[in-house]
Known about the structure:
The protein is an alpha+beta fold. The protein is built from six helices and nine strands. The protein has helices at residues 34-38, 77-88, 98-112, 183-197, 212-220, 230-237; strands at residues 5-9, 26-30, 67-71, 122-129, 135-143, 168-174, 202-208, 224-225, 242-248. Strands 2-1-3-4-5-6-7-9-8 form a nine-stranded mixed beta sheet, sandwiched between helices. Strand 4 and strand 5 (135-143) form a beta hairpin. The chain is globular and about 40 Å long. The chain starts with a strand and ends with a strand.
Amino acid sequence: MRMGKVTILSASFFFPYGRPIPANCLKSINADTITAASAATTPTSEIIDAEKHDIESPSTSPFENEYTIRAALYSELPMIASLVTAGFHPELDSNPIMRPIRVLLELDRLQNNFPYQGDDRHLYLVCEATKEDKKVVGFCDVDARVPVKKKENQFSPFSSTVNRPHPYFSDLTVDPNYRRKGIASALVEEGERCAKYMNCREMYLGVAGTNTAALNLYSNMGYEIIVPTGDILEFLKQQKGVRMLRRTLN
């Protein structure tokens, strides 16, 4: 299968509402060489000023690249909620009653956690198909915020008083029609690059023990299952069959 080309518009300069953070680098790479290319951190010769660019438009021609990775926009959350539901709850695809409810629950969670202005340690990243009206076909959440004591919200199905480790990579999902094109790996690697930019030395993520495909993906990318202790152990007690993985960021 032919691997698509991926443009990475670093979230360090393309951010929701056009808020610029210090510029990093722009990469245009083939999906089958993402691993090698992402390891390079040398900025391009041209520093891009986010205030002078439309954050929804890639800096390279959309005809030159098939996919773009950038920070998500708030207006895209309904589309992302549907994508996350399809990725994590495929059993609801044929359920016209429960699927819309699940999408609304995911939308509520995404909206409540959206990284607004001033939050430079939390990112929603999306992968868009640049040749198809910028359709969002992939998503992930990179959260490097220092945990604070949470208060339980009895009205929220996602409420928890236990902090998860940080930086935490979650919600990685790719549209079923766009899988096996290197998108998942590209999102993981861009998430890691953003975490390193935030001066993080490791990345954590949780995976269902039955999700063999995800476990293999992360294992091939250097993630290892860890023996949970302390807060991580308490966090996993609230999950069902989830394993905690960690990778040192070089």
